[in-house]
Amino acid sequence: MIRAMILMLALVSNPRVDDPFRVSTSLDIQDDKSPPSLVAQFTINPDGGWKYNRAYPSTAALEINGRAVASEYTITHGAPSSVAFTTTANLGDVSEPPYDIVIVASFSLCTETSCRVWRRQRIVVAGSKAPIHIFHD
Q1: CA proximity to 20, closest of 84, 81, 73
Q2: What angle do CA 102, 39, 68 make, to 5 degrees?
Q3: d(Cα 61, Cα 105) in Å, to the nearest integer?
Q4: Which secondary structure element, helix H or strand E, spans residue 62, and what is its range?
Q5: 2-128 to CATH, choices 2.50.20, 2.60.40, 3.40.50, 3.40.720
Q6: Under the phi-then-psi rule, with left for phi > 0, alpha for psi from -120 to 50, and beta for the rest, what region is 113?
Q7: Average pLDDT over residues 85-91
Q8: What's the gap between Cα 122 and its chain centre?
Q9: What is the DSSP letter of 10?
Q10: Handedness of CA 26, 94, 61, 130 (dihedral sign)
Q11: pLDDT in tens, 62-79
């Protein structure tokens, strides 16, 4: 089995200093299935006072090598206010190795008095803007 692990925080496109969250990522290429699949995850860790807005219709999609690919996603709520988005894609339709892997997500965070929405945020999981390290089990 091949496992890929990202050893840095993700880069969010157009990051702003006032974004009240941190993002971490992970990546797993599961080649024990036919065809192999890619599981990319990012976790939002809100800063003090901010919480994930469960009422907002959050979405996540996967892009591989600059192309949108068919993928499924799940959202897992952590403690105290973090949330993990996990996207899974079949690599059978990807004609070349997955060098650039990006999750495109929309989500919302709230404080006690206001909410903010991030639409189509591009979280770089691996590729030219984030290192990818491959380990063989």
Answers
A1: 81
A2: 40
A3: 6
A4: strand 59-64
A5: 2.60.40
A6: alpha
A7: 88
A8: 8
A9: P
A10: positive
A11: 988 888 888 889 999 887
How is the chain split into domains, by residue range?
2-128
At 59, is the pLDDT very low, low, confident or very high (cuts 50, 70, 90)? very high
CA distance 132 to 19: 25
Q: How confident is the model at residue 100 (pLDDT cuts 50, 70, 90)?
A: confident
Q: How much is the pTM?
A: 0.75
Distances (CA, A) of 99 to 58, 126, 131: 26, 7, 10
Look up tokens 């990051």; give the residue.
15
C-alpha angle 97-137-134 in degrees, rounded to nearest 5:
35
